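User: Sequence recovery, please. Input:
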Protein backbone atom coordinates (compact mmCIF):
# COMPACT_ATOMS: atom_id res chain seq x y z
CA UNK A 1 0.00 0.00 0.00
CA UNK A 2 1.31 3.34 -0.95
CA UNK A 3 1.95 6.17 1.48
CA UNK A 4 -1.04 8.03 0.10
CA UNK A 5 -3.35 5.16 0.88
CA UNK A 6 -1.97 4.91 4.40
CA UNK A 7 -2.61 8.57 5.04
CA UNK A 8 -6.18 8.24 3.79
CA UNK A 9 -6.86 5.27 6.06
CA UNK A 10 -5.41 7.06 9.11
CA UNK A 11 -7.55 10.14 8.47
CA UNK A 12 -10.70 8.07 8.20
CA UNK A 13 -9.90 6.31 11.44
CA UNK A 14 -9.34 9.64 13.23
CA UNK A 15 -12.65 11.03 11.97
CA UNK A 16 -14.48 7.99 13.25
CA UNK A 17 -12.84 8.35 16.66
CA UNK A 18 -13.77 12.02 16.89
CA UNK A 19 -17.35 11.27 15.92
CA UNK A 20 -17.54 8.51 18.52
CA UNK A 21 -16.15 10.83 21.21
CA UNK A 22 -18.70 13.49 20.32
CA UNK A 23 -21.53 11.00 20.53
CA UNK A 24 -20.32 9.81 23.91
CA UNK A 25 -20.05 13.40 25.17
CA UNK A 26 -23.55 14.20 23.93
CA UNK A 27 -24.93 11.12 25.61
CA UNK A 28 -23.20 12.06 28.89
CA UNK A 29 -24.62 15.57 28.69
CA UNK A 30 -28.08 14.16 28.06
CA UNK A 31 -27.77 11.80 31.02
CA UNK A 32 -26.60 14.61 33.37
CA UNK A 33 -29.40 16.88 32.16
CA UNK A 34 -31.94 14.16 32.75
CA UNK A 35 -30.51 13.54 36.23
CA UNK A 36 -30.69 17.27 37.11
CA UNK A 37 -34.24 17.51 35.86
CA UNK A 38 -35.20 14.45 37.90
CA UNK A 39 -33.53 15.92 41.01
CA UNK A 40 -35.26 19.28 40.50
CA UNK A 41 -38.57 17.55 40.08
CA UNK A 42 -38.01 15.55 43.26
CA UNK A 43 -37.01 18.68 45.21
CA UNK A 44 -40.10 20.48 43.98
CA UNK A 45 -42.25 17.62 45.13
CA UNK A 46 -40.57 17.67 48.56
CA UNK A 47 -41.04 21.43 48.98
CA UNK A 48 -44.64 21.17 47.90
CA UNK A 49 -45.26 18.39 50.39
CA UNK A 50 -43.57 20.41 53.19
CA UNK A 51 -45.64 23.49 52.36
CA UNK A 52 -48.84 21.50 52.33
CA UNK A 53 -47.89 19.81 55.61
CA UNK A 54 -47.21 23.18 57.31
CA UNK A 55 -50.54 24.52 56.13
CA UNK A 56 -52.29 21.44 57.45
CA UNK A 57 -50.50 21.77 60.83
CA UNK A 58 -51.54 25.43 61.12
CA UNK A 59 -55.13 24.58 60.38
CA UNK A 60 -55.02 21.72 62.88
CA UNK A 61 -53.69 24.09 65.59
CA UNK A 62 -56.48 26.56 64.87
CA UNK A 63 -59.08 23.83 65.14
CA UNK A 64 -57.59 22.59 68.44
CA UNK A 65 -57.66 26.15 69.86
CA UNK A 66 -61.27 26.54 68.84
CA UNK A 67 -62.10 23.28 70.56
CA UNK A 68 -60.14 24.23 73.73
CA UNK A 69 -61.61 27.77 73.98
CA UNK A 70 -64.07 28.11 76.88
CA UNK A 71 -67.40 29.80 76.60
CA UNK A 72 -68.03 32.92 78.78
CA UNK A 73 -70.21 30.82 81.06
CA UNK A 74 -67.42 28.29 81.52
CA UNK A 75 -64.90 31.06 82.27
CA UNK A 76 -67.20 32.58 84.92
CA UNK A 77 -67.71 29.20 86.52
CA UNK A 78 -63.96 28.62 86.63
CA UNK A 79 -63.36 32.08 88.19
CA UNK A 80 -65.96 31.35 90.88
CA UNK A 81 -64.24 28.06 91.60
CA UNK A 82 -60.87 29.82 92.06
CA UNK A 83 -62.23 32.70 94.21
CA UNK A 84 -62.14 30.90 97.61
CA UNK A 85 -58.48 30.07 97.12
CA UNK A 86 -57.64 33.69 96.30
CA UNK A 87 -59.54 34.95 99.35
CA UNK A 88 -57.71 32.51 101.61
CA UNK A 89 -54.38 33.66 100.16
CA UNK A 90 -55.21 37.33 100.81
CA UNK A 91 -56.29 36.54 104.37
CA UNK A 92 -53.04 34.67 104.95
CA UNK A 93 -51.00 37.62 103.64
CA UNK A 94 -52.96 40.02 105.86
CA UNK A 95 -52.41 37.78 108.90
CA UNK A 96 -48.67 37.63 108.25
CA UNK A 97 -48.49 41.44 107.91
CA UNK A 98 -50.47 41.89 111.13
CA UNK A 99 -48.21 39.50 113.05
CA UNK A 100 -45.12 41.35 111.80
CA UNK A 101 -46.65 44.72 112.77
CA UNK A 102 -47.65 43.41 116.19
CA UNK A 103 -44.17 42.00 116.80
CA UNK A 104 -42.61 45.39 116.02
CA UNK A 105 -45.12 47.38 118.08
CA UNK A 106 -46.98 48.85 115.08
CA UNK A 107 -50.17 46.83 115.10
CA UNK A 108 -52.22 50.02 115.15
CA UNK A 109 -51.32 50.82 111.55
CA UNK A 110 -53.45 47.88 110.37
CA UNK A 111 -57.11 48.53 110.99
CA UNK A 112 -60.43 48.46 109.20
CA UNK A 113 -62.32 51.68 108.40
CA UNK A 114 -64.73 52.65 111.13
CA UNK A 115 -63.10 50.44 113.77
CA UNK A 116 -60.74 51.13 116.65
CA UNK A 117 -58.87 48.76 118.92
CA UNK A 118 -60.60 48.20 122.25
CA UNK A 119 -57.64 49.50 124.23
CA UNK A 120 -57.24 52.67 122.14
CA UNK A 121 -57.97 55.91 123.98
CA UNK A 122 -61.07 57.83 122.98
CA UNK A 123 -60.56 60.63 120.44
CA UNK A 124 -59.17 63.73 122.07
CA UNK A 125 -61.33 66.65 120.98
CA UNK A 126 -61.13 70.00 122.72
CA UNK A 127 -60.54 73.69 122.13
CA UNK A 128 -57.45 75.52 123.32
CA UNK A 129 -58.08 79.11 124.25
CA UNK A 130 -55.52 81.88 124.46
CA UNK A 131 -53.44 80.70 127.40
CA UNK A 132 -50.54 83.01 126.73
CA UNK A 133 -48.51 80.14 125.31
CA UNK A 134 -46.83 80.47 121.93
CA UNK A 135 -48.52 78.76 119.05
CA UNK A 136 -52.16 79.47 119.89
CA UNK A 137 -52.38 83.18 119.03
CA UNK A 138 -55.62 83.12 121.02
CA UNK A 139 -57.36 80.96 118.38
CA UNK A 140 -59.39 77.83 119.03
CA UNK A 141 -57.64 74.59 118.10
CA UNK A 142 -59.41 71.28 117.66
CA UNK A 143 -57.56 67.98 117.71
CA UNK A 144 -59.14 64.60 117.06
CA UNK A 145 -56.01 62.47 116.73
CA UNK A 146 -55.09 59.60 119.00
CA UNK A 147 -51.75 58.76 120.52
CA UNK A 148 -50.15 56.20 118.20
CA UNK A 149 -49.68 52.74 119.77
CA UNK A 150 -45.91 52.93 119.35
CA UNK A 151 -45.83 56.04 121.60
CA UNK A 152 -48.72 55.26 123.97
CA UNK A 153 -46.74 53.64 126.80
CA UNK A 154 -44.11 56.38 126.86
CA UNK A 155 -46.75 59.10 126.66
CA UNK A 156 -48.73 57.71 129.58
CA UNK A 157 -45.62 57.00 131.67
CA UNK A 158 -44.47 60.64 131.40
CA UNK A 159 -47.65 62.45 132.46
CA UNK A 160 -49.13 62.44 128.96
CA UNK A 161 -51.12 65.55 128.14
CA UNK A 162 -49.65 67.66 130.94
CA UNK A 163 -46.11 67.29 129.59
CA UNK A 164 -46.57 66.67 125.86
CA UNK A 165 -50.03 68.07 125.20
CA UNK A 166 -52.61 66.47 122.94
CA UNK A 167 -51.69 64.85 119.61
CA UNK A 168 -52.06 67.15 116.61
CA UNK A 169 -51.03 64.70 113.88
CA UNK A 170 -51.01 61.04 113.05
CA UNK A 171 -47.84 59.07 112.43
CA UNK A 172 -45.46 60.97 110.14
CA UNK A 173 -41.88 60.67 108.93
CA UNK A 174 -39.50 63.35 110.22
CA UNK A 175 -35.85 63.07 109.30
CA UNK A 176 -36.35 59.44 108.30
CA UNK A 177 -37.87 58.53 111.66
CA UNK A 178 -41.41 57.58 112.60
CA UNK A 179 -42.81 60.43 114.68
CA UNK A 180 -45.98 62.05 115.99
CA UNK A 181 -46.57 65.72 116.76
CA UNK A 182 -48.09 66.91 120.03
CA UNK A 183 -49.00 70.42 121.19
CA UNK A 184 -45.85 70.74 123.28
CA UNK A 185 -43.47 68.27 121.67
CA UNK A 186 -42.80 65.66 119.01
CA UNK A 187 -42.17 62.05 119.96
CA UNK A 188 -39.80 60.01 117.80
CA UNK A 189 -39.29 56.25 117.50
CA UNK A 190 -35.66 55.04 117.61
CA UNK A 191 -35.69 51.35 116.58
CA UNK A 192 -31.93 51.06 117.11
CA UNK A 193 -32.63 51.47 120.85
CA UNK A 194 -35.53 49.02 120.93
CA UNK A 195 -36.01 47.48 124.36
CA UNK A 196 -34.26 50.35 126.18
CA UNK A 197 -35.45 53.55 127.83
CA UNK A 198 -34.44 55.45 124.68
CA UNK A 199 -36.64 53.58 122.21
CA UNK A 200 -38.98 56.61 122.28
CA UNK A 201 -37.48 60.08 122.68
CA UNK A 202 -38.88 63.63 122.65
CA UNK A 203 -37.48 65.57 119.71
CA UNK A 204 -35.22 68.61 120.08
CA UNK A 205 -38.07 71.05 119.47
CA UNK A 206 -36.40 73.73 121.59
CA UNK A 207 -33.32 73.60 119.37
CA UNK A 208 -35.43 73.66 116.20
CA UNK A 209 -37.61 76.56 117.37
CA UNK A 210 -34.68 78.79 118.40
CA UNK A 211 -32.20 77.81 115.70
CA UNK A 212 -31.71 81.45 114.65
CA UNK A 213 -31.61 82.92 118.18
CA UNK A 214 -28.15 83.54 119.70
CA UNK A 215 -28.15 82.89 123.45
CA UNK A 216 -25.15 84.25 125.40
CA UNK A 217 -23.39 81.72 127.59
CA UNK A 218 -23.22 81.94 131.36
CA UNK A 219 -19.88 82.17 133.10
CA UNK A 220 -19.13 79.14 135.22
CA UNK A 221 -20.25 79.29 138.84
CA UNK A 222 -20.75 76.64 141.51
CA UNK A 223 -24.34 75.43 141.71
CA UNK A 224 -26.26 76.43 144.83
CA UNK A 225 -29.79 75.91 146.16
CA UNK A 226 -31.16 78.80 144.08
CA UNK A 227 -29.43 78.28 140.73
CA UNK A 228 -28.07 75.10 139.12
CA UNK A 229 -25.30 75.47 136.56
CA UNK A 230 -25.13 73.24 133.46
CA UNK A 231 -21.52 72.93 132.24
CA UNK A 232 -22.71 71.11 129.09
CA UNK A 233 -24.41 74.16 127.59
CA UNK A 234 -23.06 76.89 129.94
CA UNK A 235 -26.41 78.08 131.31
CA UNK A 236 -27.96 78.33 134.74
CA UNK A 237 -31.41 77.13 135.78
CA UNK A 238 -33.19 78.91 138.62
CA UNK A 239 -34.89 76.97 141.39
CA UNK A 240 -38.49 77.40 140.11
CA UNK A 241 -37.69 75.98 136.68
CA UNK A 242 -35.18 73.43 137.97
CA UNK A 243 -37.70 71.92 140.41
CA UNK A 244 -40.28 71.50 137.63
CA UNK A 245 -37.58 70.16 135.26
CA UNK A 246 -36.43 67.57 137.79
CA UNK A 247 -39.91 66.44 138.86
CA UNK A 248 -41.29 65.97 135.34
CA UNK A 249 -38.70 63.94 133.49
CA UNK A 250 -35.47 65.90 133.77
CA UNK A 251 -32.83 65.45 131.12
CA UNK A 252 -34.63 62.69 129.17
CA UNK A 253 -37.78 64.78 128.65
CA UNK A 254 -36.49 68.37 128.56
CA UNK A 255 -32.79 68.13 127.74
CA UNK A 256 -30.14 70.65 128.76
CA UNK A 257 -30.88 74.40 129.00
CA UNK A 258 -30.32 76.38 125.81
CA UNK A 259 -30.75 79.80 127.42
CA UNK A 260 -30.98 81.48 130.75
CA UNK A 261 -34.24 83.08 131.89
CA UNK A 262 -35.54 85.76 129.53
CA UNK A 263 -38.65 87.80 128.79
CA UNK A 264 -40.92 86.84 125.90
CA UNK A 265 -44.20 88.35 124.72
CA UNK A 266 -47.26 86.15 124.12
CA UNK A 267 -50.14 88.21 122.82
CA UNK A 268 -50.47 91.24 125.08
CA UNK A 269 -48.57 89.75 128.01
CA UNK A 270 -44.94 89.29 128.94
CA UNK A 271 -43.71 86.11 130.61
CA UNK A 272 -40.47 84.81 132.02
CA UNK A 273 -39.38 81.76 130.05
CA UNK A 274 -36.37 79.51 129.61
CA UNK A 275 -35.56 77.38 126.59
CA UNK A 276 -34.32 73.81 126.87
CA UNK A 277 -33.26 71.42 124.11
CA UNK A 278 -36.65 69.67 124.08
CA UNK A 279 -39.03 72.28 125.52
CA UNK A 280 -39.69 75.82 126.68
CA UNK A 281 -40.67 76.34 130.32
CA UNK A 282 -42.89 79.35 131.08
CA UNK A 283 -43.59 81.07 134.39
CA UNK A 284 -47.25 82.16 134.74
CA UNK A 285 -47.55 83.99 138.08
CA UNK A 286 -51.26 84.67 137.49
CA UNK A 287 -52.20 80.98 137.18
CA UNK A 288 -54.93 80.39 139.73
CA UNK A 289 -54.67 76.61 140.03
CA UNK A 290 -51.12 76.57 141.36
CA UNK A 291 -49.65 75.43 138.01
CA UNK A 292 -47.45 78.44 137.54
CA UNK A 293 -44.88 76.57 135.45
CA UNK A 294 -46.22 75.52 132.04
CA UNK A 295 -44.59 73.89 129.04
CA UNK A 296 -44.74 76.00 125.89
CA UNK A 297 -46.60 74.84 122.78
CA UNK A 298 -43.50 74.38 120.64
CA UNK A 299 -44.88 71.29 118.92
CA UNK A 300 -47.86 73.28 117.67
CA UNK A 301 -45.68 76.24 116.66
CA UNK A 302 -43.32 74.06 114.61
CA UNK A 303 -45.96 71.79 113.08
CA UNK A 304 -48.22 74.62 111.92
CA UNK A 305 -45.36 77.13 111.49
CA UNK A 306 -47.58 79.87 112.90
CA UNK A 307 -45.24 81.53 115.40
CA UNK A 308 -41.60 82.31 116.14
CA UNK A 309 -39.60 83.36 119.19
CA UNK A 310 -40.79 86.79 120.35
CA UNK A 311 -38.06 87.68 122.83
CA UNK A 312 -38.45 91.24 124.05
CA UNK A 313 -35.42 91.72 126.25
CA UNK A 314 -31.96 90.62 125.28
CA UNK A 315 -31.20 87.17 126.61
CA UNK A 316 -29.16 87.75 129.74
CA UNK A 317 -27.45 85.11 131.86
CA UNK A 318 -29.32 84.07 134.98
CA UNK A 319 -28.11 86.29 137.84
CA UNK A 320 -25.88 84.38 140.18
CA UNK A 321 -26.90 84.97 143.79
CA UNK A 322 -24.16 86.23 146.04
CA UNK A 323 -23.57 83.83 148.88
CA UNK A 324 -22.47 85.56 152.06
CA UNK A 325 -19.13 84.31 153.36
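Assistant: Recovered sequence (325 residues):
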Amino acid sequence: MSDKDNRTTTAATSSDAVAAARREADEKIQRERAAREAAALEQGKTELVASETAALDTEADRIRQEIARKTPAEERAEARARAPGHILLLLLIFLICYLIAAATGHAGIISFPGTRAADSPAPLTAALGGTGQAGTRGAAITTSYEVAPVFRDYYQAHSGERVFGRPISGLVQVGGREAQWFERSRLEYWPEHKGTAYEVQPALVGVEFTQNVPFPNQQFFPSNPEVVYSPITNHGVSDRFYTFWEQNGGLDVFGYPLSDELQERFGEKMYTVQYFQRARLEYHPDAGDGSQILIGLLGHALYFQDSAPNIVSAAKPTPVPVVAP
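Residues 105-132, 134-140 have pLDDT under 50 and may be disordered.
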